[in-house]
């Protein structure tokens, strides 16, 4: 069959099921319904969720844990003890001299655990802290010379780790994953702080409406 005719037939099938769908929706639909290469092993360990939302979150969660495991290996002998410390260094480097609370929130930490991590990094000479001239209740932090050196070295290692973990994906597939998931990350990152202390039922109702 002519490829143009085949594409038109697929579009007609999609449009019949989803009359309000856009071209972007069709592209995602078409890719999702292609016959995928058979995986070499089990999809996920343990119990496989029977619904797509749960399965997707388990896949994302396991990839996140594996990324942390390999990244922590990559960070050995660099002066950093875990991948979260790398995120803190890069946040400070990008923002210059941010407030402590801004760094903690940007990296999705609770205030107590984020403060403890910053204090440990300060003791190791990676960051320095001083009072905020505009707000006496706040503290600002910036990288030390050692912190800059460590950030530069670790950037290369973490970059290689990311390339290694995603090596089997084509660039187009990576771009598609980013396009699909970025709105989820943006929405949840903007909401999570105000949800602390709330009941799950209230959070659920709010996020399902938004």
TrEMBL record:
Taxonomically, which superkingdom?
A: Bacteria
Q: Does the keyword DNA-binding apply?
A: yes
- Domain HTH marR-type per the UniProt entry, residue ranges: 53-186
Return the InterPro entries for the record. HTH_MarR-typ (IPR000835), WH-like_DNA-bd_sf (IPR036388), WH_DNA-bd_sf (IPR036390)
Keywords carried by this UniProt record = DNA-binding, Transcription, Transcription regulation
Q: What is this protein called?
A: HTH marR-type domain-containing protein
Q: Could you read off the lineage of the organism from its UniProt record?
A: Bacteria, Pseudomonadati, Bacteroidota, Cytophagia, Cytophagales
